[in-house]
């Protein structure tokens, strides 16, 4: 199993990090977890043809986890994908895809109408007709290479849109769990039990969380570094990757300006990544990686 972190950022634009995306490859099959901005380009950067990615799993419908989806769909159609991709996401995924890709009413209908004039694009138009499956907790997908399971996590109110954590188990006994976005969640700890690798969000360092709390900015929807260390211990996982960073480590002036409502600019910088590591290490002594774009892990 090969895991490539396509994007490791949270929401706001940052030229140094793309938004959420993870490519998991097993026996020459490719499974995409989230499709945030830049995911398709990053798949190419990882030396994989996007048209070879046949399965897309969306943890939830926040824009930083789904914004690249129409680009992925049209790009792979143009790259001669011959099959319909399987797209699995929460309730609302079908409406999301239809609002973009419907040839009658979708946002990209004029692009599709123009390109479909060419016989080559008519020949593989099925590539635009995603096999959409809206998930519930439990096993959500299985083929001869992998089994993917899901659980509810705690990010935004479920009546607005359910959010999921995902676990992929390969036929050769390897396992990886992705938290999606979540506050500490017992269901995710249960899902992650004994996994080879836990990829878990850790959006802000404690100093930013403290500022956001005083400023009245929501803090409950994510996991702090100290909490993440406890989660890794309770999950009995072998290795941990922290990801989905809120651009707190950037020295870029415009990124710092964009993030100024989340924490004082003068506190920002690469040293905060060291603070985050230190806080995770208060409880977790096992293997730890702080994610960066195109990080590769082999299991």
Give an overview in words.
By secondary structure, the chain is an alpha/beta fold. It has one domain (2-298): Metallo-beta-lactamase, Chain A. Helix content is 27%, strand content 24%. It contains 10 helices and 14 strands. It has helices at 39-45, 69-78, 93-101, 109-115, 119-123, 186-191, 206-215, 225-235, 253-258, 271-280, and strands at residues 2-7, 21-26, 29-33, 53-57, 86-89, 131-134, 138-142, 146-152, 164-170, 175-178, 197-201, 239-243, 287-290, 295-298. Strands 6-5-4-3-2-1-14 form a 7-stranded mixed sheet. Strand 2 (21-26) and strand 3 (29-33) form a beta hairpin. Helix 8 packs parallel to helix 10. The protein is globular and about 60 Å long.
Q: What's the topology here?
A:
Blueprint lengths: L1 E6 L13 E6 L2 E5 L5 H7 L7 E5 L11 H10 L7 E4 L3 H9 L7 H7 L3 H5 L7 E4 L3 E5 L3 E7 L11 E7 L4 E4 L7 H6 L5 E5 L4 H10 L9 H11 L3 E5 L9 H6 L12 H10 L6 E4 L4 E4 L1
Parallel strand pairs: 3-4, 4-5, 5-6, 10-11, 11-12, 12-13
Antiparallel strand pairs: 1-2, 1-14, 2-3, 7-8, 8-9, 9-10
Helix pairs in contact: 8-10
Name the descriptors:
seven-stranded mixed sheet; Metallo-beta-lactamase, Chain A; 299 residues; alpha/beta; globular
């Amino acid at each position: 199993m090969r895991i490539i972190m396509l994007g490791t950022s949270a929401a706001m634009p940052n030229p140094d990090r793309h938004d959420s995306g993870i490519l998991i490859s097993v026996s020459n099959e490719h499974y995409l977890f989230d499709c945030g901005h830049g995911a398709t380009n990053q798949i190419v950067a990882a030396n994989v043809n996007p048209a070879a990615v046949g399965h897309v799993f969306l943890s939830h419908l926040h824009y930083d986890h789904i914004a690249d989806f129409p680009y992925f769909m049209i790009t792979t159609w143009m790259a001669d994908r011959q099959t319909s991709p399987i797209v699995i996401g929460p309730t609302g995924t079908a409406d999301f895809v239809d609002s973009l890709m419907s040839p009658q009413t979708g946002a990209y209908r004029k692009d599709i109408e123009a390109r479909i004039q060419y016989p080559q694009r008519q020949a593989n138009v099925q590539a635009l007709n995603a096999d959409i499956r809206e998930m519930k907790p439990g096993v959500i997908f299985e083929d001869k290479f992998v089994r993917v399971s899901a659980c509810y996590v705690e990010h935004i109110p479920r009546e607005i849109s359910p959010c999921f954590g995902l676990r992929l188990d390969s036929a050769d006994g390897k396992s990886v769990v992705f938290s999606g976005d979540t506050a500490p969640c017992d269901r995710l700890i249960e899902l992650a039990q004994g996994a080879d690798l836990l990829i878990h969000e850790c959006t802000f360092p404690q100093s930013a969380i403290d500022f956001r709390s005083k400023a009245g900015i929501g803090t409950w929807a994510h996991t702090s570094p100290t909490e993440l260390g406890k989660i890794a211990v309770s999950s009995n996982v072998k290795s941990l990757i922290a990801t989905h960073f809120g651009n707190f480590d950037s020295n870029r002036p415009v990124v710092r300006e964009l993030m100024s409502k989340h924490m004082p600019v003068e506190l920002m910088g690469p040293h905060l990544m060291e603070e985050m590591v230190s806080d995770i290490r208060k409880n977790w002594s096992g293997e730890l990686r702080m994610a960066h774009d195109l990080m590769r892990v082999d299991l």
